[in-house]
Write a structure and sequence with these properties.
single chain, mainly alpha, Serine Threonine Protein Phosphatase 5, Tetratricopeptide repeat, globular
Length: 103
């Protein structure tokens, strides 16, 4: 069974698990299904705004789609969430992505 199907199976048992949704979104990116990945990242961050890792991934997808303004907004939200969580590593990654795009 491929990873996408396995993750769907896990999500049937734990439909609100942000980690599983994030993993599924990454698998969608690998398989070229970026719209599905974007939808999952947006869902994660709407329902679980403290799930810091998804901000970076969503921002990168938006950059790739040419939606730089929206990517910047998500990086800013991610920096705020990372700062609130005390996650300096994620904050620095988000800040670097933000600065690369904004300046």
């Amino acid at each position: 069974m491929d990873r996408i199907n396995k993750l769907h199976e896990f999500l049937l048992k734990n439909p609100n698990d942000s980690f599983l949704k994030h993993a599924l979104a990454l698998e969608y990116i690998k398989s070229g299904e970026e719209a599905k990945a974007r939808g999952l990242f947006e869902e994660i961050l709407t329902n679980d705004p403290g799930y810091v890792g998804s901000y970076y991934q969503l921002g990168k997808l938006l950059e790739k789609a040419g939606e730089n303004g929206l990517a910047i907004e998500w990086y800013e939200k991610g920096m705020a969430a990372a700062k609130a969580a005390g996650d300096n590593h994620a904050y620095n990654e988000l800040q670097a992505a933000y600065e690369d795009l904004a300046y």
